[in-house]
Write the structure tokens for this entry.
Amino acid sequence: MNHVIRAVRPDEWAKVKDIRLASLQDPAAPVAFLETYEGALAQPDSFWRARASGSAPGHGGRSVQFIAEAPDGAWSGTVTLLVEEAGGTVFLGATSERAQGHLVGVFVRPERRGTGLLGALIDAALDWAWSLEEPWLARVRLHVHEGNPRARAAYRKLGFVPTGISLPLEGSPSVTPGRELELAIDRP
């Protein structure tokens, strides 16, 4: 693999926006993301600046976005890890029972899939999560749509296991109706 996996820098907000828009144009976007291309495109530059600086809009907590950067500077993939505090409101209005990480915005460009970039991005996010001392994260989780078996298989190959928790997706025009299945990996 000839990519560098690294955290996004605040001044790279325009590239953060570009890769997000690319991900939302992927054919799997309706079962992979809770956002539409049109919705993301309408966001002001301040939204993208905040996202690149580690303040995920609408999250309130700490976050870090990792990218896979090719030798020519192009971004081939990305993942963001949100830190969820114990007792805080998290994904789809639930309450977090423990301090944990939450992987979101996972995307690898189609021409780079199957090259190991997904594993490298996830490894970087997990390494960062496990390095935190405050809060100490007991696990990292993610959600995957029941209609996205390719993603479920990829995450299971990387060590994530189903927790048995699923959440309904209803009434949102940006996603395919169904259920979001939770997978998690415990701190080693």
